[in-house]
Amino acid sequence: MSTSDTGFSCFLKLMYQIQDLCKSLFPKAATKMFDIKAWAEYVVEWAAKDPYGFLTTVILALTPLFLASAVLSWKLAKMIEAREKEQKKKQKRQENIAKAKRLKKD
After folding, report:
1. Of 22, 25, 54, 30, which Cα lies nearest the Cα of 14?
2. Angstrom distances, CA of residue 46 to CA of 1, 40, 50, 64, 75
3. Which of 5, 23, 36, 75 could form a disulfide with 30 if both were Cys (CB 3.0 to 4.6 A apart)?
């Protein structure tokens, strides 16, 4: 892909490559596949004619993914905090053991 290609034409080239790959892997199913270019043109036309409806649909479609991402991020943060707390506890315990051993030697 050359640098003069627009983002949309790069997207179309990629979609055609995927379509060709699918046709070679699944020759019987290739007749049932829809036309990627026509679909992409439809989406672009829809976005141009009704931008608010398009954005609303995209946001509604992505909202569950954003929510799942937020929940998983929160869980990961809690796990990291618990691990750090446990490591600090172990480190303090090791320091106390070392301190007790030093006091016994004296």
Report:
1. 22
2. 26, 10, 6, 23, 38
3. 23
Q: Return d(Cα 24, Cα 4) in angstroms, integer.
A: 29
pTM of the model: 0.50
- Tell me the backbone φ, ψ of residue 30, rounded to 5 degrees: -65, -30
Query: Residue 64 and residue 11: Cα distance in Å, rounded?
Result: 25
Write the DSSP symbol of residue 63.
Answer: H
The per-residue pLDDT for range 1-58, each reduced to its tens digit, is 455 557 777 777 877 888 777 777 666 655 555 678 888 888 899 999 999 999 999 9
CB 41 within 8 A of CB 11: no
Tokens for 25, please give them.
Answer: 């892997």
- Give tens-digit pLDDT for 71-85: 999 999 999 999 999
Cα(38)–Cα(36) distance, integer angstroms: 6
**Are 30 and 22 contacting, i.e. CB atoms less than 8 angstroms apart?**
yes
Query: What's the full length of the chain, in residues?
Result: 106
